């Protein structure tokens, strides 16, 4: 009665630190940890690959502000999770990975699945440690959870020696740690706020860029007030979409290139000047652009461009400070400027081109037609998960987000394979909030393949997920079935088939029906609309809509190849 095992201590410590979700795959030596976690009331989702489990755990961290846990076995289990840790760290999302490892008395002896796990994790995490004894488990887990959410969020690793799982210790000898509170909130320096406000007021062509840091920092209410009071145009980054609704009158996403190129002052909110924002440099930015950089991480300040003002601290607090600065004299950026007309003209011109492509009725469908009809049918409050190259890039411009933290995608690391894990995480969070909102997972056919077997996980837990596979028979593009047959006759496919090709018209829908979900194979607009309507309205089980599109369908001509790094 007085004794407590290592497994129990891990579970109790995670629960005490308000870790609500655990994703993983069990085996020696951590099966008891999963059972103990469940007994503590932590929701345990058994996955099919640790990579997807880690993607899922990190997405719950992003969605809830508290890290999810990823539970893995030693050696290969931990190695699979490293991809998820790296992705979480690049995205600045909190996650706790708990890895079982070899028994201590077999270390260096060639133990089963022995691997230097603490060292291996170091490059993929902010913190990597092993409790030295059972008594140290609560404090190491508290530190891992705290480190994952304090400062810039990221991945933390806790290694558990296999022999510690079943070993026990007297409860009275274990120090109980209280739950670490949410990160302390810090404000930006007042003089920096004053300077930033005066630069904003003097701007001729101002632009607000909203990053996923603003979404993670729950700055949506303050930001709405700030944007509406100041009248400034804003542009979301891919996962900054939805912090303010995409159909907000101040959103200039459809004039992205123009806005970036000509802005003279950019208020950068929780976004990094990395490849996604073209480093903040020419030829994509004005060489003299003044950056007002808002970030919670001091080390981020000045990366690639030295900011005119660095506003260090909590993004929600700083937007509130800026709001007060703007509010003081009731200043508002006028709506009749040349800048606004430039942006609005560009938005109208781009809308016209997309609309023409969307309304094409040729068969097979192109990307624009697919997304046009999907966007008409999606509920405003659904969570959109997306990955792929063309599928994600075109989908991002055509599928609107209206709510914060309702878009999850390949992210800063450009990782293919995240989609199904993210969708499972979003569904788990929605389910526990009793909202049961649909998760729409828009996948390229290649992207789907990376974690396709997680469809079984979705069916096992009956998660409210609708997967749409935009199937062009390949990576970026593919060939039609007739061409494929010709190629087969010509000789060894490994020497002939273009490396981008995948099996034409592959039946991804049957992967879903294999596990009892609903599968749809669609070629026409009518079939697409009907399948999506059925999946959304009379939903009973997860569904997968396999949309066969023109394998040579491509993007409309771009002024600049935006976000096509992954495409090159
Ligand atoms: C883990 C990983 N492996 C490989 C890539 C390279 N890559 C970028 S996009 C992509 C897939 C694009 O094809 P698909 O998902 O079918 O989308 P499409 O462009 O065809 O619509 C790949 C393999 C990557 N980004 N991540
Ligand atoms: C813990 O004990 C259980 C039950 O005796 C056993 O099945 C399991 O293998 C043990 N786990 C470890 C890691 O030793
Ligand atoms: Mg494809």
Q: Could you explain the architecture of this structure?
A:
Strand 4, helix 4 (76-91) and strand 5 (95-101) form a beta-alpha-beta unit. With 568 residues, this protein is an alpha/beta fold. The chain is globular and about 75 Å long. It is 40% helix and 16% strand. The model is unreliable at 561-568 (pLDDT under 50). It folds into three domains: 3-173, Rossmann fold (3-Layer(aba) Sandwich), CATH 3.40.50.970; 190-340, TPP-binding domain (Rossmann fold, 3-Layer(aba) Sandwich), CATH 3.40.50; 360-548, 3-Layer(aba) Sandwich (Rossmann fold), CATH 3.40.50.970. The longest helix has 21 residues, at 338-358. It has a six-stranded parallel β-sheet with strand order 3-2-4-5-7-6, sandwiched between helices. Thiamine diphosphate binds at residues 388-391, 414-417, 444-447, 470, 472, 474-476, 566.
Short structural summary:
This protein is an alpha/beta fold.
Write the layout of secondary structure elements.
Layout: E1 3-5, H1 6-16, E2 21-24, H2 31-39, E3 43-46, H3 50-64, E4 68-72, H4 76-91, E5 95-101, H5 117-122, E6 127-129, H6 137-149, E7 155-161, H7 162-166, E8 168-170, H8 190-202, E9 206-210, H9 212-216, H10 220-230, E10 234-236, H11 256-262, E11 265-269, E12 290-295, E13 309-312, H12 315-327, H13 338-358, H14 367-377, E14 383-387, H15 390-398, E15 407-409, H16 419-432, E16 439-444, H17 445-450, H18 454-460, E17 465-471, H19 481-490, H20 493-496, H21 508-514, E18 518-522, H22 525-537, E19 543-548
Parallel strand pairs: 2-3, 2-4, 4-5, 5-7, 6-7, 9-10, 9-11, 11-12, 12-13, 14-15, 14-16, 16-17, 17-19, 18-19
Antiparallel strand pairs: 1-8
The site of magnesium ion (MG) has 6 residues, from α17.
